[in-house]
Amino acid sequence: MSDASTDSLVLSDIGVTFGGLTALDGVSLSAGSGEIVGVIGPNGAGKTTLFNVICGFIRPDSGTISYRGQAMGRHQPHVLAKLGIARTLQGVGLVPGLNVVENVMLGAQGKTRSGFASAVFGLPRSSREEMRLRAQALELLGELEIAEHAWKMPTALPYGVQKRVSLARALIADPTLLLLDEPASGLSSDDMAELGQLLRRLRDRMGVLLVEHHMDLVMSTCDRIVVLNFGRVIASGDPDVVRADPEVTRAYLGEEVRTAEGGPGA
Ligand SMILES: Nc1ncnc2c1ncn2[C@@H]1O[C@H](COP(=O)(O)OP(=O)(O)O)[C@@H](O)[C@H]1O
Ligand SMILES: [Mg+2]
After folding, report:
1. What average pLDDT score do residues 218-244 get?
2. How would CATH label the architecture of 1-84+176-191+216-232?
3. Which fold has domain 94-175?
4. What separation in Å is there between the alpha carbon of 76 and the centre of ligand 2?
């Protein structure tokens, strides 16, 4: 594991309540460069809440967050890009009126001065910068093996392709840490396997925090895993240790029972 204070995202003792409901209860974890850290847990475990805390969408009631030794207390979402952190959200969230390349270029907004948004919306801009960004976007689309869709509108594309576009949009910011919330949701098992391989390749360039419901993707991809259940860390460690943990099995089994009895599952 990397040095927790200098090149990692470090969460200490994070607590979040919604009204009377405790969504996160004393959650601590770290994610460093060059490693893929998985956060798993059954539905309702608190994964998205944790993700939103890191992104600055939810302010924790207690605890601290730092990145590379810098405290991120009470940060706003736009601070992430400046710190070198990029994210995708659950779903895809692409802009329907822009083509694939333009959507990807939007991801660079936080780091460019003239702002790509101005380029897309026809305002004065640096065309040299726009050309550079377009080239980078096309390169990323090639890396994600969806270059043939570059000039199409995203709404016309299969869901799996849209998910890759949203990933490319995060990657164009050249993050040192990539945060992913359920990147595998809605993907076919082939797409999911390819996503796992892609994340392993990305690990050379950045740290990855993978918040994911799918146990198999996390097990096959992550270097370390943190398991949440009812807002608490119930296990953490390398995949083999977590897989063998009876409390983890129980947490996931409980979910199957609930799903079977309680109508439609996730
Ligand atoms: N905005 C909110 N208001 C009230 N309760 C919420 C809110 N967001 C999440 N919760 C609750 O917090 C718990 C954790 O939810 P969530 O973080 O979405 O879990 P997961 O992503 O692991 O499925 C759940 O019980 C959920 O119902
Ligand atoms: Mg969720």
Report:
1. 94
2. 3-Layer(aba) Sandwich (3.40)
3. Rossmann fold (3.40.50)
4. 20
